[in-house]
Write a structure and sequence with these properties.
Pnp Oxidase, Chain A, about 160 residues, mainly beta, 3-stranded antiparallel beta sheet, about 50% strand
Amino acid sequence: MGVDNQSFKDALAKLGSSVSIISIVDEGLLYACTISSLNASNVLDPELMFQLTHTSKVGDRIKAGIFFSISVLGGEHAGLATYFANPRSILSVESHSKDFARLKSGDTNFAVLPDSPMYFLCKFNESIRRGNSEIYFSKIIGGSTSKSSSLIYQNRKYHSLD
């Protein structure tokens, strides 16, 4: 028994997922996108996995070996989640300086949401392409957590978990 594409999407929409923004600073430009596919792939040697479309400019930068950050979004970040969920042009880091804080680790610049429930500083490990998507595996090289609430995406809407 097969399932048509729309029925499959409707069924998956009922699953609640955490919402995060992946961001990369490259030559003073900010590349960022919203994901709802973040998972741990290895807890013994901390590694995360997530999915992007294979045409993602963020994914291109990740595969080029540029370090990046993943900010898990809080309840107050629904507007940012919506903004970065749609394909965007490349932005100057200053255009979102009120939202993102710049961190420096060695020679690497990161853009993170400092008021997010948690953020991770990451380095690309490997990717696997499936259909129009690519699954990325990344080592965690740093991060921070707070006590703020998380944002989830369910039934095509954002919800705050308080």
